[in-house]
Structures are given as C-alpha cells and as structure tokens.
Amino acid sequence: MPSPPEFPVRRVYDPPEPTDGARVLVDRLWPRGVSKEAAAIDEWPKDLTRSGALRTAYHHGEIDFPAFRSRYRTELADPAAEAAVRALLDLARDSTVTLVTSAKDVDHSHVPVLLEHLREHGQ
Questions:
Q1: Residue 75 half-sphere exposure, CB side, CA atoms within 13 Å?
Q2: Which in 48, 66, 79, 117 has the greatest CB count within 10 A?
Q3: How far apart are CA 114 and CA 72, in angstroms?
Q4: Is the whole model's pTM more than 0.90, yes or no?
Q5: Which residues, 6 or more positions from 112, have their beta carbon under 8 angstroms from its beta carbon?
Q6: CA Rg, the chain, in Å?
Q7: Rounded (to 5) percent helix, strand, coil in the chain
C-alpha cells in the first residue's frame, strides 16, 4: 500500500525553490506585501482554509489552540472542504505539492491541523 503524500511547508515570504513543485496557498487572505508573481502560487483553494471567524477568534485569543483545532477539523468536514482535500491529495499523488502560508508561527497555526487531516485522508 502506498504511503500518504508528504507536503513540504514554506512561508510565502521565502523565495520559491525549484523543488517546491506545485505551490498551494493555504491562507484565506492574500498575504500582505507579496505580489502574485513573487509568491508563485499555482493553486489557492480557499475552501481548504479556516473560516475568517475562526481565524479571528484564535488570533484575538478568544479560543485556545485545542478549541481552534477542533473547530477547524469540523470545518474541514464540510463538503466543499472535502472536495478541496481530495483535489489536493490527487495532485500530490503525481508530484510534489508545497503548502504555502503567511503564518508567522507555522507550528501554532492552522497548517499542522491541515497536515494532520491530509495525512489521515491520504491513506
């Protein structure tokens, strides 16, 4: 049985690398101060990202990370998000797909939750 695809993660403010493959922006909002040319984004599946309300609640300290994680996982169960997950997994079966974000602290953002979800559904 093939292993689930791996998804490298890069910040949008870092220059693209030749090994990035398809670069997929996983933020709902376009990153500040970065042109579309400099970002070199190939896909921007907004249905895959957390909602604006959830992003705001987490960034304003209204909810902690465990609550954020739980609510984001619920959002990822939405049919539109599920379709975006399937499309991303299909793309990753044939080539490298790098997830691109503007998050300052990637380890405490939505990205690890999304990676966990992708690994579970990529099996």
A1: 19
A2: 48
A3: 8
A4: yes
A5: 106
A6: 14
A7: 50, 10, 40
20-77: per-residue pLDDT in tens?
A: 999 999 999 999 999 999 999 999 999 999 999 999 999 999 999 999 999 999 999 9
Residue 71 backbone dihedrals phi, psi, to 5 degrees: -70, -35
Identity of the amino acid at 51: S
In the block, tokens 């987490």 appear at 58
Sheet harboring 22-25: ordered strands across?
9-11, 97-101, 22-25
Buried b / exposed e over 3-39, threshold 16 CB at 10 Å, is: eebebebbebeeeeeeebbbbbbbbbeebeebeeeeb
